[in-house]
Write a structure and sequence with these properties.
The protein is mostly helical. It contains 24 helices and no strands. The longest helix has 50 residues. The termini are far apart.
Length: 619
């Protein structure tokens, strides 16, 4: 079966006014939800309502928002391309999600739920010191601002080159609508628009992949073509950490990568605390797991469908498209472009992923900045009404910054890839410092500070070294072979591509160049794990040298429930929290949330200040 080659101008012509209307309706619905919650629903009169929805949300919209927050447009475009280029081994990532969900629900979530903090980084101050809290907040802000800009720009660029949508117009509309409904409607608007957008994402992906698979020849034809093309790889048992995807890197490394998102990321934890009880939050996590697994497997099959369509005429080598992430939009317009409205539904689904990620990021960034910097450093006694106004101004400000960085990303070139890598670089060390606090009660403030800085430095060095080695051609990319035997020689660059070297040959390292350090050859799936363990190891060594934390003075609410369980049978930690309760006269269930009006018990304040003074002296 020869794959027909289609002119790019023909693809542009297939995106008609019907598709633009479909895209426009999605934007109008999102904006309408913001208007409803900003003007018609409960007024956003305080930060509890604007940032936390007054803890009135149900499990379902929170679960949908959890899916939408980090299953972005990059996932919807990038995962099918990953399968097309590298094979199906990535499917094993689903087992990482299966482990991450109970770990989050029973190890990390109970701590945040008990403390009821608006900013997760308030935990770092209560457990360690204000300096650790501010470092964590700055890392998260840097991470999310860069990530949000790329989440908008990368899919917009891919879609504009294939569909003909004007890039700057699409980016402007996405950013302006997102800024509008997030600033006006607060977290409730974000949660409910995420719910609508997730439905659009699933409907569009299912319709396109099922119809495309049916037209090509059905499941077994697709399976056989992928087998013939050596794409089917069920399990790679290679124990080397240098191999890009193995069962070990995907399940173990994937656990640390996604635990940094679901376990301690502000955007996710803030959603857990929008529900009434911990049980509702746990239920939302399990619903989220079902949705994420389905979406991951759907995208994996989508990549197999794309390969079965273009197995003998690789669109990249033939010059039809220039980048991997353009493969899925090409497939949609090539296969279903004659169905009026379907390409528009697909574009709506992709941009829904971008909208949901950016709106979640804007809201969480506003919460962090308000609690950790505006109130934490300058105006601790700020009135609720003023806090709400400042929250909206911060949301608007971060939206404008994202909008500006989107256009700056157009000039960045390869720096875009480096910026996206920051998400993994920062996530591991942040997971490490929270894990150090919750699971290692002996760690002190100096240990947390030294561990965080050391882990971050090491992770950035490893990630950037690996990135530079790959982009300079010193590391092979392990791409699967492709064919252009079925391409029309008269089309564009097909003839040149046929006679020229393959992509694999172009990226092969030169024999004259020295191989990069082994650590730079580490699979990217291990980066978060490296960051996490670096923080824990360095943090505990620094704590050991400077003097371990006195467990009697430790707030028992700041450690994970599993540590509390072991404290009953291990003499070394059986004194956990005893002195704390004696000095405050309060059990842990009676202590009010950190930073609340009730958090003014003199004994409690003295205890906390004594702990911080002791840590500062050691520093």
């Amino acid at each position: 079966m020869t794959s027909p080659v289609i002119e790019i101008d023909t693809l542009h012509n297939r995106f008609t006014w019907v598709d633009y209307c479909s895209f426009g309706i999605m934007l109008l619905v999102s904006a309408g939800i913001g208007v409803f919650f900003g003007c018609c629903g409960k007024k956003q009169g305080d930060t509890s309502e604007f940032l936390m929805a007054s803890k009135s949300m149900g499990s379902f919209p929170v679960a949908m928002s959890l899916i939408a927050s980090f299953m972005s447009a990059i996932t919807l475009l990038g995962l099918p391309a990953e399968i097309y280029v590298y094979g199906t081994s990535y499917w094993l990532i689903i087992f990482a999600f299966v482990v991450v969900t109970p770990a989050t629900a029973h190890l990390y979530l109970p701590v945040f739920h008990k403390l009821q903090m608006t900013s997760v980084y308030e935990y770092l101050e209560l457990r360690f010191s204000k300096s650790v809290r501010l470092i964590g907040s700055c890392l998260f802000i840097t991470q999310m601002v860069l990530y949000m800009a790329i989440v908008v720009y990368a899919p917009a660029l891919a879609l504009s080159q294939v569909t003909g949508i004007q890039l700057h117009l699409a980016v402007s509309l996405i950013c302006l609508v997102c800024i509008f409904y997030t600033t006006l409607g607060g977290i409730k608007a974000v949660l409910w628009t995420d719910t609508v957008q997730v439905v659009i994402m699933f409907v569009s992906m299912v319709l396109i992949i099922v119809k495309g698979a049916s037209d090509i020849g059905g499941f077994w034809y697709i399976w056989n073509k992928n087998q013939e093309g050596h794409r089917i790889e069920i399990v790679n048992w290679d124990a080397s950490p240098l191999t890009r995807h193995t069962i070990w890197s995907l399940v173990i490394g994937g656990y640390f990568t996604w635990c940094s998102v679901y376990g301690v990321n502000q955007a996710q934890v803030q959603r857990y605390l929008c529900v009434q009880t911990k049980g509702h939050a746990v239920r939302a996590l399990w619903i989220n797991l079902v949705g994420v697994l389905f979406l991951q497997l759907l995208c994996v099959f989508g990549g197999m469908v794309i390969y079965a369509k273009y197995w003998d005429c690789d669109p990249i080598r033939s010059g039809i498209v220039t980048k991997d992430d353009q493969l899925f939009p090409l497939f949609v317009l090539d296969t279903l472009g004659l169905w009026k409205g379907v390409p528009g539904l697909f574009v709506s689904g992709i941009f829904s992923g971008a909208l949901s990620t950016v709106s979640s990021g804007m809201n969480s960034l506003a919460a962090i900045t308000l609690e950790d910097f505006v109130k934490g450093l300058f105006f601790p006694e700020m009135q609720e009404r003023t806090s709400t106004i400042v929250s909206k101004v911060l949301t608007l400000g971060y939206g404008i910054v994202t909008f500006a960085l989107v256009f700056a990303a157009e000039k960045m070139g390869s720096i875009m890839t480096a910026s996206l890598s920051i998400f993994g670089m920062v996530g591991g060390p942040l997971l490490g410092v929270f894990t150090l606090g919750m699971f290692f009660p002996w760690a002190n403030a100096l240990g947390a500070l030294v561990g965080t800085l050391s882990g971050l430095t090491f992770t950035i060095w490893v990630a950037l070294g690996s990135l530079i080695s790959k982009t300079s051609g010193k590391l092979p990319m392990d791409k699967k072979d492709t064919s252009i035997a079925g391409c029309s020689a008269s089309f564009g660059n097909a003839t040149a591509a046929t006679s020229g070297p393959s992509t694999a040959a172009l990226i092969s390292p030169s024999e004259e160049e020295e191989d990069p350090l082994l650590i730079f050859q580490l699979s990217y799936m291990w980066i978060s794990a490296v960051g996490c363990f670096s923080v824990i190891i360095c943090g505990m060594l620094a704590s050991l040298v400077s003097g371990l934390q006195d467990l009697k003075d430790l707030d028992p609410r700041t450690v994970s429930p599993c540590i509390r369980f072991f404290s009953r049978c291990l003499p070394s930690i059986e004194s956990l929290g005893k002195n704390f309760e004696e000095k405050t006269g309060l059990t842990e269930t009676e202590v009010p949330p950190f930073g609340s009006p009730g958090f003014d018990n003199p004994a409690l304040q003295i205890d906390v200040e004594d702990q911080r003074t002791s840590d500062t002296t050691k520093m």
